[in-house]
Design goal:
Radius of gyration: 22 Å
Distance between the termini: 56 Å
Strand content: 15-25%
Number of helices: 16
Number of strands: 23
Largest sheet: 7 strands, mixed
Structural class: alpha+beta
Oligomer: single chain
Shape: globular
Strand order of the largest sheet: 17-18-16-15-21-22-23
């Protein structure tokens, strides 16, 4: 039998294991959710051991469903929720604390202190990032400061840390401690120009270098798996959004994609140019293939998109399942003047306001649950529009189309509104599991499963295209209403009044 590539897609709410063939077709898959742990307001944690146990079970399920043996797997690629971090014992592999998730805001006060000397952009020249609770470095500092004995044990070399890709690679290989530049560039600890941990940044956040993994490329053999997949090369590693760009074959400067999942993430390939943003975007590593020059990207991150639909279901009870939001939204012709700005964990790009909190505005007696459902979907499109506008301003590139992927792209109402609001075609590929596909591509390139990126480009296929049909006046009026709504979220909290913001 022809060998396949196994992709492990470890996301915020679930883990998936997917098998792909040479034509990038999905052969078999398995998925399991893991617990979301909320110890305090604004705190979000995962049990890293639960994630690892789920991953092992899912690998077995995927192999069984395809009737495969471990020897039928050519390589393993990993993609992951990026800024989520875990610290574990080097000798036992047992985490010393739950993983702190990218959505977590407990480092609000740490970030405020870091920004006192020079503002939130003081580290941008080195990292491409603002100082924000989103990123991993302050989370590691918090873990070392607040887990009993952790800082002393780290200084003695007894502990290891990493984002979830590192955690999985370490467990899969029996102890290889690595990450890739796409994940390392999300920590506030890596120097973008050198692709290495920066000593000044490590000192600033009191993080010992010995705790951190080595930074290898996104596509090379890190080691061979042990256990169930003994001797199979682990050969690809990409943060989830960079993996989606890779899976969309966004290999050329100017290529742009948007992934609609728990959050919403748009990446624009800027080639070998590590371009600083003047409009609130992140400069990040898109990928690095072996010893080749790294490819960079601009990214706009939105914290709450698909999770807003979950909130409508779980917290308000307006729908019983996520797909029902579209049919409910279609019961009304428009949003009825209602806007929802879901700043549950503050606002990400292009605002970077950790003091913001969510609002519903424009309510009248006319508004009903259909308008709330429509406003829920439209919030995703408005936030995407703000990011695309920032990308155009930063690059002056004539972005003429948007490739999309993720769970929400099956929503026809959202995709049409997105095209209308952006005034460009929105294009969905045949395979919407582009995050997992990107990890598979990175691993496959490393072992010669696919010869080069040109071969991958030929595999991309269009499934559906939405064309804009909204009038310019209508587009401008709707977006002006959104911009006004966003201002109502500002200055809602401060460190003194918000219990989850404190570092203790």
């Amino acid at each position: 039998m022809t060998k396949l590539i196994l992709a492990i897609d470890q996301g915020t709410t679930s883990t998936r294991c997917i098998l792909f063939d040479h034509d990038s077709r999905l052969v078999a898959s398995a998925q399991a959710e893991h617990r979301q742990i909320y110890p305090k307001p604004g705190w979000v944690e995962h049990d890293a051991m639960e994630i690892w146990l789920n991953t092992q079970s899912l690998i077995r399920q995927a192999l069984d469903r395809a009737d495969l043996k471990p020897g039928d797997i050519a390589a393993i690629g990993i993609t992951n929720q990026r800024e989520t971090v875990v610290i574990w014992e080097k000798s036992t592999g047992i985490p010393i604390h739950n993983a702190i998730v990218w959505q977590d805001t407990r480092t609000h006060e740490l970030c405020r202190l870091l920004a006192e000397a020079g503002g939130i952009n003081r580290l941008r020249d080195k990292t491409g990032l603002p100082i924000a609770t989103y990123f991993s470095g302050p989370k590691l500092q918090w873990l070392l400061d607040h887990t009993p004995g952790a800082r002393a044990r780290a200084s003695r070399g007894e502990l290891l840390c990493g984002t979830v890709d590192t955690w999985l690679i370490w467990n899969l290989t029996g102890g290889v401690h690595v990450t890739d530049p796409s994940n390392a560039s999300r920590t506030l600890l890596m120097n973008l120009a050198k692709l290495d941990w920066d000593d000044e940044l490590l000192e600033l956040m009191h993080i010992p270098r010995s705790l951190l993994p080595e930074i290898w490329s996104s596509s090379e053999v890190y080691g061979e798996a042990t256990g169930l997949l003994t001797s199979v090369p682990v050969a690809g590693d990409l943060g989830d959004q960079q993996a989606a760009l890779f899976g969309q074959t966004g290999f050329s400067e100017g290529d742009v994609k948007n992934t609609y999942g728990t959050g919403c993430f748009m990446l624009l390939n800027t080639g070998e140019n590590c371009l600083p943003s003047r409009h609130g975007l992140l400069t990040t590593v898109a990928y690095q293939l072996g010893e080749q020059t790294p490819i960079y990207a601009l990214e706009g991150s939105v914290a709450v998109t698909g999770s807003l639909v979950q909130w409508l279901r779980d917290n308000l009870g307006l729908i019983k399942s996520a797909p029902e939001v579209e049919s409910l939204a279609r019961t009304v012709a428009d949003n009825g003047g209602v806007y929802i700005v879901p700043a549950f964990s503050g606002l990400f790009a292009p605002y970077w306001r950790s003091d913001a909190r969510g609002v519903i505005v424009g309510l009248t007696r006319y508004a009903n649950k259909g308008h709330l459902a429509r406003a829920t979907l439209e919030a995703t499109a408005y936030q995407t529009r703000e990011i695309l506008d920032a990308m155009r301003a930063d690059t002056q590139l004539p972005i003429s189309r948007l490739r999309v992927d993720g769970g929400m792209v099956v929503n026809e109402t959202l995709m049409q509104f997105q095209s209308d609001l952006l005034n460009v075609p929105v294009i969905r590929p045949t395979i919407t599991e582009t995050t997992a596909l990107g990890a598979a591509y990175a691993a496959g390139l490393a072992v010669g499963f696919w010869p080069n990126t040109d071969a991958l480009r030929r595999l991309w296929r269009e499934d559906h295209r939405w064309e804009p049909s909204m009038t310019p006046d209508r587009r401008q009026a709707l977006f002006a209403g959104w911009k006004k709504a966003v201002t109502r979220t500002f200055d809602w909290i401060d460190a003194e009044s918000y219990p989850g913001a404190a570092s203790s």
